[in-house]
Amino acid sequence: MPSSGRSAAPDLRGNAAHPVFARLYAPVRRILDRAGFAARRQRLLAELGGVVVEVGAGDGGNFAHYRAAVTQVVAVEPEPRLRAAAGSAGSRAPVPVVVVAGVAEHLPIVDARADAVVFTLVLCSVNQLDRAVDEAFRVLRPGGRLVLAEHVRAPGRGWARVQDVLDATIWPRISGGCHLGRDPRAALVRGGFEIVSEEPYRLPRRASPVSFHVSLTARKP
Ligand SMILES: C[S@@+](CC[C@H](N)C(=O)[O-])C[C@H]1O[C@@H](n2cnc3c(N)ncnc32)[C@H](O)[C@@H]1O
């Protein structure tokens, strides 16, 4: 199913190898999942069916949560070590999973092929947020769903300022290019999506620059 979208060669500049981050990510993800994110994954993905494009799949932490209504997951992952881990997770998944190289800004998927697009903890790390949203829009069929669970910009000015300072200094360098102060909801609206539902929450509950999250479903009109 995956095939060339706008070009046969995905542009991996700036997103390919993050060897230190890739080594650390799986144990960090397991801690986050035990702290409550696994339940968020499950709730977000339970409603999906048909062809799902999962962008920035990491080590495949979502795969176990897809239900039988999903006929195919195309998991796009630029980082080689994480992509290999996702391949192993995909072979154990309850639904068919194919893992491919690529980036959110240039998905190797034909137009209107997907019934759903999934982002979990990815839009913080893409190089071009609006471009990633445009690509999700392109690969979705009309009426298709985009679901995301992301850490986001804090609602109050105090924490948002802390996030901006960290984003301008050390945070992206130690976290595989992640940014704390992004607002993916605004990007979806700019990109033409209709917001269907959204749930803000803190994980962990205690406020910190990384604790502000949202789970959201949007629809391509
Ligand atoms: C924090 S991890 C999240 C992984 C997974 N989605 C999860 O929920 O556990 C961020 C992932 O986004 C990937 N990533 C970074 N930049 C990307 C881009 N431009 N396009 C697609 N994936 C990207 C990273 O390689 C990494 O796998």
Describe this structure in words.
With 221 residues, the chain is of the alpha/beta class. The protein has one domain: Vaccinia Virus protein VP39 (Rossmann fold), CATH 3.40.50. It is built from 6 helices and 7 strands; from the N terminus they run αββαββαβαααββ. It has helices at residues 19-45, 80-91, 129-139, 157-168, 171-174, 184-190, and strands spanning 50-55, 70-76, 97-100, 114-120, 140-151, 194-202, 212-219. The protein is globular, with a radius of gyration of 16 Å. The model is unreliable at 3-14 (pLDDT under 50). Bound molecules: S-adenosylmethionine.
Task: Please tag this protein with its features.
seven-stranded mixed beta sheet, 24% strand, 33% helix, single chain, binds S-adenosylmethionine, 221 residues, alpha/beta, 6 helices
